[in-house]
Write a structure and sequence with these properties.
Blueprint: H1 3-16, H2 19-26, H3 30-44, E1 49-51, E2 56-58, H4 60-88, E3 92-98, H5 100-117, E4 121-127, H6 136-139, E5 144-147, E6 156-170, H7 172-178, E7 192-195, E8 204-206, E9 214-216, E10 222-223, H8 226-234, E11 239-243, H9 244-253, E12 257-258, E13 264-274, H10 281-296
Parallel strand pairs: 3-4, 3-5, 7-10, 7-11
Antiparallel strand pairs: 1-2, 5-13, 6-11, 6-12, 6-13, 8-9
Helix pairs in contact: 1-2, 1-3, 1-4, 2-3, 5-10
């Protein structure tokens, strides 16, 4: 027995003073309405209605129960209106998960700008360099996750919001000491600072340019953080492949120099969100804003 339907039937009968009127309002048979009320009285162990051939009236217990039922229905209607409104109006909290280095250097500026534009939306930005499966963020209660990689997972939706350019770099002292590689294949003979992740392909650098190719690298230091890899490169530990946003100041200052400058790689920045027929307006607003914001940034090439 659906308790909500039973409660609604009881309230209709109580207000209309008639099983017939309640049945007509609900589009049900009079017999079904009567049976619902009888079952309800049997479950509660009290008589809620006084019945006669001409009318139906509330007992003392029925009057007390009606107050609670009306409150229940009012609360339900209020909740439904708020939920429906939250799906259309940009209100409430949106939780975002992103890589730490990208989040600190780049995404935080974009999210702060979004908060200025939409102060009615509370944004919670969590940064982590731990790897995760594409769908894990939904289970952890996040609305949006940012990944710097192509996503092929049917359990989530993904939208490209930027493309980042990556460059090979090292300190001038390292290049002077070890010599500059002449081509991509030479990288196998140099200490390289690779990203540390769960994917075995993290140590395979796929570079574009003249004679560009994929090359497997290795070296004395690995990390899952671009900021940590930048520090290792600045310490002269080897050649690093890093996003240009993280080393632009170092290149300008000359503390890092480009290695094989004709060879680069580009990686997409993807915004992931739950697959749902009803995308909350606040999620749509954030993703649209991020796509436009990154398109204006000089370190993020046009999508």
């Amino acid at each position: 027995m659906d308790r909500f339907q039973v409660v609604e039937s009881f309230v209709r009968v109580a207000h209309g003073g008639s099983f017939t009127k309640a049945a007509m309002q609900l589009g049900l048979s009079r017999a079904l309405i009567s049976r619902r009320i009888m079952d309800l009285e049997a479950r509660l162990g009290v008589r809620l209605l006084n019945r006669s051939t001409r009318s139906v009236s509330l007992t003392e217990e029925g009057s007390a129960y009606l107050v609670h039922c009306e409150q229940l229905l009012n609360d339900m209607e209020t909740a439904e209106r708020e939920i429906a409104r939250s799906g259309k109006a940009p209100l409430g909290t949106i939780r975002v998960l992103a890589p730490k280095s990208f989040g600190v250097v780049c995404l935080s500026d974009a999210v702060i700008a979004f908060s200025h534009k939409h102060p009615q939306i509370r944004v919670s930005l969590s940064l982590s360099d731990f790897t995760f499966r594409p769908g894990d963020f939904v289970e952890d209660g996040f609305d949006v996750a940012i990944r710097i990689a192509d996503i092929r997972d049917s359990s989530v939706m993904a939208r490209r919001i930027a493309v980042l350019k990556w460059a090979l770099c090292a300190t001038p002292e390292f290049v002077e000491r070890e010599g500059a590689p002449r081509g991509v294949a030479d990288l196998t003979r140099y200490p390289c600072l690779a990203h540390l992740g769960s994917d075995e392909h993290d140590r395979v650098w796929r570079l574009t340019g003249p004679g560009g190719r994929a090359v497997r690298v290795d070296g004395p230091f690995h990390s899952n953080s671009a900021l940590a890899l930048r520090k290792a490169a600045l310490a002269g530990l080897g050649i690093a492949l890093l996003p240009e946003y993280s080393i632009a100041a170092d290149l300008a200052a000359g503390t890092l120099v480009r290695v094989l400058p004709q060879h680069t790689t580009r990686r997409p920045v993807m915004a992931l969100y739950a697959r749902s027929p009803h995308l909350p307006q606040k999620v749509r607003l954030l993703i649209d804003f991020l796509a436009q914001w990154f398109k204006r940034e000089r370190w993020a090439p046009s999508i």
